Amino acid sequence: MVLSGLSLGEQVDNVVEITNSYAVVYEEDPNEPNIWYLDHLYHETMFDMFKKVSWMLVQINAKERFVGWYATGDKFKSQDILINEIFRKYNPTPVFIVVDVEHQVVVGSHAE
Question: I need a labelling partner for 50 at 20 to 30 A (CA). Which of 19, 41, 77, 107 fits?
Fold first, then answer.
């Protein structure tokens, strides 16, 4: 299963600070990876809600904007280019992050 979501934050020049995120509905056909569905209307609804909450919290996150998106997996996929084009509607240079949630790294070891 692939989890996909959007990143919110602030982008100044080439520096991006991610301060928030939320998942979006994303499905791909297991037999045909070029067939996929991403609910961008859900994104628009969620982002509007985030803006309203920010306003109610006295503009704590007033600078929060859509800065990019993420997906779980172990590599970049060809359909990611098409999805990135959709998100260019909201930001001309969206940041895409692939999060490998299954890769196991052993940090340090207990020496006897």
Answer: 77
- CA 48 – CA 6 distance, rounded (Å): 13
d(CA 3, CA 1): 7
The pLDDT tens digits for 7-16 are 989 988 889 9
pLDDT tens per residue across span 15-44: 999 988 888 877 888 888 778 777 777 777
State the Cα–Cα distance between residues 70 and 88, nearest whole angstrom: 14
* CATH code of the domain containing 73: 3.40.140.10
User: By residue range, what is the domain housing residue 46?
Assistant: 4-99
- Alpha-carbon distance 47 to 41, whole Å? 10
Rg (CA), the chain: 17
Whether residue 106 lies inside any domain: the answer is no
Whether the CB-CB separation of 95 and 67 falls below 8 Å is answered with yes
pTM for the whole thing? 0.72
